[in-house]
Amino acid sequence: MTGVLKKCVYVSVALDVPLTRLFEYSVTAERTPAIGARAIIPFGPRRLAGVVLGVAAETQFDSSKIRSVIALPDDMPPLPEDVLALSRFCAEYYGHPLGQVLATALPVALRQPKTFVPPEPSGVYQASNLDALLQSLSPRAFAQKQLALMLAQPMARAELAAISPSANKWLKNWIDAGWVAFTETLPDAIPLPVGAAEANAEQAAAIALIDGQHASFAAFLLFGITGSGKTEVYLQTIAACLARGQQALVLVPEINLTPQLEARFRARFPSARIVALHSGLSDKERVLNWLSASRGEAHIVLGTRLAVFTPMPRLGMMVVDEEHDASFKQQEGLRYSARDAAVYRAHQRQVPIVLGSATPALETWHNARQGRYRLITLQHRAVGGAMPPQIEIIPMHRAKVVEGLHQATLNIMRDHLAAGQQVLVFINRRGYAPVLSCGECGWLGECKRCSAKLVLHLKERRLRCHHCGYEEVIPTACPDCGNQDIRPLGQGTQRIEAALETLFPDANILRIDRDNTRRKGSLQEMLRQVSAGEANLLVGTQMMAKGHDFPSLNLVVVLNADAGLFSVDFRGEERMYAQLLQVAGRAGRAGTQGRVLIQTGYHDHPFYGQLLAQDYAAFADAQLDERRSMQLPPFAAYALLRAEAEDGALAKAFLQQLQAVLTDAAGVQMFDPIAATMQRKAGMERWQLLVMSDTRHPLVNALKRIAPLLEARNNKVRCILDVDPIEM
Ligand code: ADP
Ligand code: ZN
Ligand code: ZN
């Protein structure tokens, strides 16, 4: 304290701490920050970065106790009103501290308590004479060629530098030679691209509808099977948006799995700046791309769920592709639905939003049926002649089976391979076998820390828990009775791969699952092998189901399909339908009709009748009827409170305490706390309390009552709140 009275203002700052309240600091009046700006402040002995949410001339606290702001870095445009509004909405709706929501919204580099100094000027490089540049390269200079081809588009230096450590040197040479130019700023408006496919009648109607709403909010559900031309509709409506000088935000489930989509956008908009935002990027790439979007330089942002918070000053439309995908819901920290947040934001900004899917989430389908979203259906595959895949059921009841594969399945596979086609065996279970067992005493290998079986990984010579990561060596004899004949039960990808190696010794087999694609770039390399035809018999998990086009794949075999039918989760069938249709969509992309074989032990279950009809609308309507009669979402709003403690009794008691606080809240109902489906996980006992109401408002209001209890420090019990849980 200097004793000299400088004129001060007081700012309230949201901090990344698990507390709902804001914190006040003083700044000298000359430096009054904007709302939404970053501030670096003292917090106890530490420094933290936060976001300024209020500025006032007075304070209600003792002004002598208020500490002053350390710095107001001018390293990003202040967060705009719509991002702040979206953050406030998420904080309230999902019951999460605002400061932590805002931290989620910012890239890591801008959460640090120091000024971010960009390592290079903003601005982009682009080839001014690509032909001359390419001709100058030796045919073996692969990295240089890759870099040169990237320069067909405007690219920032950080993106280019990722290609090779020599990128900067090459770039300099090419600029000196006059083949590449640097521009500080690109024009806002991008002229309509030439050479786009001519929209068919259905697409043209869709584009006209969406584009006709460009000056106000409207939510569209673009419903059409894989290959019906949804992406083409996004591209053409985005083209119109860019031509008006606006920006577009496109959310995709997992960008690592959709490099083809990014390539398609880049090919369509060669003069636009397209930036990606996803967890596969380095912190540096992420902050630069984010800044490029927030300064209005990037025309298109292609990102995963976290990109929904990206500031975009000239936002003109939004797209959520594969809107039903579970990965739009974050499953930790701020448990938000990026799809719902996107709709909120589109409304806030008064721009149209397109939700695209072949199998819309039932929540979305209901909104469309109610008329809140406008339903646009693409009935046909876009490419002339391509037909939806033919789905067949292979009943497994009393069948002759080789390693989980029916004889009929094997015969059909053999025919396809002999005809030079690719075959995909889809099994949603990695490892060799889901459990190891003793035939003598009934012992099963179980995780010591979870209520779960240990999965046998033969390649890695381990038993592994897929829930907590615990692993141990494979025992040579039964730990209980000493019997040496212990056996794997059931099949996983590794076991199917091994079986296929024996059954099809001439095939080039490739297994693709999480275990062998952890290394960066390995998935891309495998996908390249598939596209190049270097492998013809593929074994894969759901990683294979999404978004890849394999031109010569036209048989998909689905093993172990039934899991979803008996799931405790009421969304089991909805998910299963979506997944099976998605994997079926991998078959027969190139003009031929694909074939899908589904092996099931329950072939007369009504679900398979609905699947064979390939009429998702009818399936969804029937599911909605069931949900309505059972008061399940979307006909009721739910929140899940899950408490975990080493001592289960403490977890249960904590939930009972919450229950008591909520008991007389208007309009909500509760069930008694119950043990979670997976009662033990990573050494913790888990209990849960479900709270519901007919509509969202009473629920959100009631949950405010328990915020202080959830915020209070409790070393023994960890409790999370999940509003609109996707698993319950
Ligand atoms: P979806 O996103 O629904 O799976 P796409 O937009 O990817 O469908 O279209 C499937 C295929 O059809 C793509 O190869 C695309 O280039 C092509 N396609 C889409 N619309 C047209 C069109 N109007 N004319 C010609 N080809 C088209
Ligand atoms: Zn035994
Ligand atoms: Zn475990």
From TrEMBL:
Zn(2+) 1 binds at C438, C441, C478, C481. It comes from Iodobacter arcticus. Its EC number is 5.6.2.4. The lineage of its organism: Bacteria, Pseudomonadati, Pseudomonadota, Betaproteobacteria, Neisseriales. Residues 211-378 form the Helicase ATP-binding domain. This is Replication restart protein PriA. Belongs to the helicase family. PriA subfamily. InterPro entries: DEAD/DEAH_box_helicase_dom, Helicase_ATP-bd, Helicase_C-like, P-loop_NTPase, PriA, PriA_3primeBD, PriA_3primeBD_sf, PriA_C. Gene3D superfamilies: P-loop containing nucleotide triphosphate hydrolases, PriA, 3(prime) DNA-binding domain.
